[in-house]
Amino acid sequence: MQKTVSTDLELLRQIAVSDEFALRMLYEKYWSRLYDYALSKLEFQDLAEDVVQDIFIDLWNRRENLMIERLESYLFRSTRNKIIDVIRAGLIRKHHEESSLFEYVPVGKNLDIEEEIAYKELHAAIHDGLALLPEKTREIFRLNRLDQLSTKEVSVLMDIPVRTVEYHITQALRTMKTYLRDFITIILIVNTSS
Predict the structure, then answer these.
(1) How many CB atoms lie within 10 A of CB 41?
(2) What fold characterizes domain 8-97?
(3) Spans of all domains in the chain
(4) Long-range contacts: 134-140, Cβ < 8 Å, 24+?
(5) Best exposed site among 22, 82, 135, 187 by fewest CB in 10 Å?
(6) What are the distances in angstroms from CA 125 to CA 40, 138, 183, 188?
(7) 190/110 Cα distance (integer angstroms)
(8) Which residues lie below 8 Å from residue 173, measured CB to CB, with a gap of 6+?
(9) How far is CA 4 from the centre of its chain?
(10) Cα–Cα distance between 89 and 178 in angstroms, integer?
(11) Per-residue pLDDT tens digits for 130-174
């Protein structure tokens, strides 16, 4: 006699009483779709696999206290949150490993006094220009241009459409271009003297 297919809620009830077979059934039912979703956002197979694995480990670890009405929504929301955590962890690592635009002396450059002053002035101008931007636009610009995240990564991190990210970047670039017009000459002089 063949076992009938259990609903998600029945499987959750079975998981709550430590039924590993029920967990395996949910895993087999949702793994591929969750993996595809994670891979589309992270673009690295090992990261996507880790995210989905963590979702099911978390589900098992919290099995006795789960209050889930719609499992599919819960799993995709949990996956999205894990993806955001992975991206944030990458940002923190990137911030500590690389020098940012806000470092006034680029790595590997020996600057004379005039160049160093120019970089300091540019640094201050960038900060002042960023202060003119609306908060959301400023955050998107920082993530994309300064932390070097792709528009897709910013979209995932901030949970907004890619088109919205592109719009805010365009707006920020217009403002910054106007504000930094006087510093273009400084940038060209320093870059050509390196």
Answers:
(1) 20
(2) Rna Polymerase Sigma Factor; Chain: A (1.10.1740)
(3) 8-97, 113-192
(4) 136/168, 137/168, 137/171, 137/172, 137/175, 138/172, 140/165, 140/168, 140/169, 140/172
(5) 135
(6) 37, 14, 8, 15
(7) 11
(8) 141
(9) 41
(10) 33
(11) 888 898 998 898 888 877 888 888 888 888 999 999 999 888 888
Instruction: Give 100 or 79, the one with higher predicted confidence.
Output: 79
Q: What is the CATH number of domain 113-192?
A: 1.10.10.10
Compute the distance between CA of residue 88 and CA of residue 79 in angstroms, rounded to an integer. 14
Average pLDDT for 93-112? 47
Reading the block at residue 28, the tokens are: 């087999």
Positive or negative, the Cα torsion across 88, 91, 96, 102? negative
CA 159 – CA 147 distance, rounded (Å): 17
